[in-house]
Amino acid sequence: MVGIRSAGQATAALTSGNVAREVVAPKQPGRAAPSSPAGPTRPTTLDSFEASTPAATERMRATLSPAPLLPGDTDVRPDPALPPAQSAATYKPVANGRLFVDGAAPEDVIQGGLGDCFLLSAMSAVASADSDLLAKAIKDNGNGTYQVRLFAKQADGPVAPKTFRIDGDLPSAGGELLFGKARQRNETWVPLLEKAYASTKAGYASISHGGKPGEALTALTGRPTTSTRVLLTGKYKTLELMKSAQERHAAMTANTYPSAKCLAGLGLLTNHSYAVLGTEEEGGVSYVKLRNPWGFGEFGNDGKNDGVFRMNLDDFYRSFIELHVS
Description:
Elements: E1 31-32, H1 54-63, E2 75-76, E3 90-92, E4 109-110, H2 117-129, H3 132-137, E5 138-140, E6 145-153, E7 159-167, E8 170-173, E9 176-177, E10 181-182, H4 189-199, H5 213-221, E11 226-229, H6 230-233, H7 235-247, E12 252-256, E13 273-282, E14 285-291, E15 308-312, H8 313-319, E16 320-325
Parallel strand pairs: 2-7
Antiparallel strand pairs: 1-3, 3-8, 4-10, 5-6, 6-7, 8-9, 11-16, 12-13, 12-16, 13-14, 14-15
Helix pairs in contact: 2-5
């Protein structure tokens, strides 16, 4: 389980080991969001969700048009429950929202007030490796709803798709999205896929303190994910795995060690998931190119502070505990 890092407060120290605090959103006019029950999140199956009241489900069904459905599209999801600290927020559509603006790109993805870096880094990685997968993952029905296709490994082994609908309302406060968003304010594929993924769990609260990077990658690619322990595999074998994945347009993420001691002086976040954008060779030195889903905060100092950076293989080897390829 990784990804307890939230970009909700930019003032969080990069290697402090502290999770960014959740901000209690002020009440806004509009539809109140369902709240999560107090206490620890219960384990759930992929297709379960909470706070799905009959009234909410009926409201969703009443707004749907008889548009053609993809095979298997029989499930309508109510808005996923929010973490208790954000329960006063409201669900609203993005003004002048567009699903994609010039397609999906890795730099679109900006993590918000949830600690779901495992999911947002997966989005960025898939956008880099094969953005067509994201275009196939979500479709605008033209009536305020979206058709989503995510994948999960079944109990009997194979990966299978699950197609369902969500509406375009997103958790907001003060006119701003609370959670994941795109760098361009009116582009909505990032927060809508985050909402869809949360609806397959027990709501936003269930993904707010980390998750499984391999599961998130598989949900978007439809392919099994191979997770590799970098230290046990060795740095040169790990490099070959990344090169091979890059050649076949596979998506990759990597997560750092939970100990700040391992990352001292590198400007990396502990226990944080990064998108692996590829490998490069320069002057006989191998480099790994990565992106922080926060959209800022990075290794080195290239003056851009856009979350994208590269590090030599030795630094990657001592900083990252796992590599995930899908």
